[in-house]
Amino acid sequence: MIRNNWTITEITQIYNSPLLELVYKAATLHREYQDTAEVQVCTLLSIKTGGCSEDCAYCPQAARYNTGVDVQALMKTDEVLEYAQKAKDAGSTRFCMGAAWREVRNNRDFDRVIEMVKGVNELGMEVCCTMGMLTEEQAKKLHDAGLYAYNHNLDTSEEHYGDIITTRTYKDRLNTLDNVRKAGISVCSGGIIGLGETHEDRIGMLHTLSTLPKHPESVPINALVPVAGTPLEHNKKVDIWDMVRMIATARIIMPATMVRLSAGRNEMSIAEQALCFMAGANSIFAGDKLLTTPNPSFADDLNMFNLLGLKPREAFKGAPLELA
Ligand code: SAM
Ligand code: DTB
Ligand code: SF4
Questions:
Q1: Dihedral pair phi/psi, residue 31, rounded to 5°
Q2: What CATH code is carried by the domain that includes residue 124?
Q3: Sites in the chain below the pLDDT cut of 70
Q4: CA gyration radius for the chain?
Q5: Which domain holds residue 68?
Q6: pLDDT digits (tens, 9 = 90+) for 73-90
Q7: What is the pTM of this model?
Q8: Helix (H, G, I), strand (E, B) or coil at 18
């Protein structure tokens, strides 16, 4: 049953259950709600890199940290479409374009993104964007251009948020998610572990996501990629068991959602990733770069899929979205 009334106590009990029991329960629900042979392959492309005005403590693209990321202008539409075609040829069915913006402020840039969205949609891929805050009107325009999903992460709990980002609020994030939902776009929202948060913060973030009026259609779980020059560069590597616990809990409380094993795969073995799939992850970001940091290559992932008997999920398999 899909529930939106989870309590913190219930989620805490699930999260703290013995690890193998937790994985077993998550795997059982995964079989009930999803095709466990399938993993959604989403390719990420940074269409506008670096120079961002925000202060997200984890982010290599924030202008205020000296991370060595080259600032690049918005890419040209034909270059983006060429990359999308390559991703499609490699078996990817979702294409996610990321921009290092607080929000889309400039109409000329917005019009270019609209062109990209139309182009990727015409390739028959699910098109996703992540560009910061959106107004209701922008969300509607993106939907009309064929945008399938929008990624906007809560990142952490409301309580911990202020320690990580001060240039916008948790409420701003929730407002954008609401605008995306109202426009009939599929919601992709999750977070990062390894930011220095407590277990209660992780549970708090999962509580917020699982008590939204409708669960996000996808929930990315990122392990912090510590980048030199950011305030979190010396954070401890995320323990694989923490990743598994987080994924399994998300699978149990949001069984119909795609749970994405996101940043951090480059540091994981195939065996560790297999544990995450077993715990209910059924989506990955593919391509040898995430936005600015390394990720396994298409060839490495193909090898992993063959080894584990997994296949890429087809595009547009989710239930049709209803307007909120
Ligand atoms: N600027 C837009 C925004 O912040 O919504 C879109 C791009 S932003 C880079 C997308 C997401 O990437 C962030 O919300 C965060 O969850 C994730 N991210 C950024 N840097 C990361 C890092 N070093 N490790 C893990 N995840 C990271
Ligand atoms: C998400 O949750 N993770 C992706 C995507 N959404 C945009 C981004 C991960 C970025 C990791 C750091 C980097 O490569 O710059
Ligand atoms: Fe900017 Fe997004 Fe990075 Fe924050 S996470 S600094 S908003 S690109």
A1: -65, -30
A2: 3.20.20.70
A3: 315, 319-324
A4: 18
A5: 8-312
A6: 999 999 999 999 999 998
A7: 0.96
A8: coil
